[in-house]
Write a structure and sequence with these properties.
single chain; 318 residues; alpha/beta; Nucleotidyltransferase, domain 5; 2 domains; 5-stranded mixed β-sheet; 8 strands; elongated
């Protein structure tokens, strides 16, 4: 997967730490990743553009403005990205992107706050928009081949009231569905419940009908073999059977473990209102696991283009 226009992998990795410490370096790094060697007007697409400079010093304008000779519009690299209209310096954005893309189990807003010396509110604002940049492409093709499907619950370990037993009965637990293509991508989503209607509906939306489905023996998955060309295989966890040849859900379950370790160890707790964004982050990390840290960071930065998350926008919007 390509990471930059004309930068080698090593050059990209070397430039990221500098971009995290110097504002001009951060601006130029983000401009390079967005436009390469051919900057263009984000308003009209013209390549007849130039950097605006201070008349006295001859250095770049302190707002790092560009101007288009054709439409006469002024703009910056921030326009049309998740960091548009943000007052947070771009070097802090670069650092947060870097940490979010190099920490397998995530990075907390409190840690970003301490390292960047910004307020917690600003760090949370920044991290929520980075997770939004990591959101999956709604037009991505469905999963193919052998696809493992499983469900889990995310939330506090202890049940809220005495006498309640079983993970599914706790009112504070959030049901999450997962479909993962072997040697491929993962798709996770919050579901209303773990009934057959909810889980089968999620599978139909995420998995191509030509695929083979592998699940555990949970009753909600029964009947899927009639819908999928590759059939439906199950593994019997209730009898301590965890694998039978290539019939297992170990890939899906290991992905659940990463999410839960991240939430317990890094975030401690995540509300239902914001959980989908954290799932986007964990899925992005899984789907780019074959890339090095520099490539993954640049890919997330590129994904920030064309996305806006307004301050008042409902956090439930996916």
């Amino acid at each position: 997967m390509k990471t930059g226009h004309n930068l080698s992998k090593s050059a990209v990795i070397e430039n990221i730490p500098l971009a995290c410490s110097d504002e001009l370096a951060a601006v130029e790094f983000l401009e390079k990743q967005r436009w390469g060697n051919d900057p263009a007007c984000i308003k009209c697409g013209s390549v007849e553009v130039y950097k605006m400079k201070d008349a006295k010093t001859g250095k770049r304008n302190r707002r790092y403005l560009w101007r288009c000779r054709d439409c006469q519009e002024q703009y910056t690299v921030r326009i049309g990205t998740v960091y548009e209209e943000s007052r947070i310096e771009l070097r802090h954005w670069c650092y947060a992107f870097w940490r979010a893309c190099t920490s397998k189990k995530g990075v907390s807003a409190l840690e970003i706050k301490r390292h960047c010396q910004i307020s917690y509110k600003s760090a949370l604002f920044l991290m929520n928009r980075i997770r939004f940049a990591m959101a999956p492409d709604p037009d991505a093709p469905k999963l193919m081949g052998t696809v493992e499907c499983d469900e889990t619950y995310i939330g506090p370990r202890k049940t809220r009231y005495k006498g309640m037993s079983g993970v599914g009965r706790s009112t504070s637990k959030i049901p999450v569905f997962c479909a993962v293509e072997r040697q491929g991508e993962i798709r996770r989503r919050i579901v209303a419940d773990v009934t057959a209607a909810s889980l089968k509906g999620a599978i139909r939306e995420e998995v191509d009908r030509r695929s083979r489905i592998v699940t555990d023996e949970f009753a909600a998955y029964r009947g899927l073999g009639k819908e999928y060309v590759g059939g439906h295989d199950t593994v019997a966890h209730s009898t301590k059977e965890f694998a039978r040849g290539d019939v297992h859900t170990n890939t899906a379950e290991s992905s659940h473990a990463l999410v839960k370790r991240g939430i317990v160890g890094i975030y401690h707790n995540v509300s239902r209102e914001y959980l989908h964004r954290y799932l986007w982050q964990f899925d992005f990390m899984w789907n780019t696991r074959m890339l090095n840290d520099g490539e993954r960071t640049v890919l997330a930065m590129k994904a920030a283009e064309g996305k806006r998350l307004m301050y008042r926008e409902s956090s439930r919007t996916q």
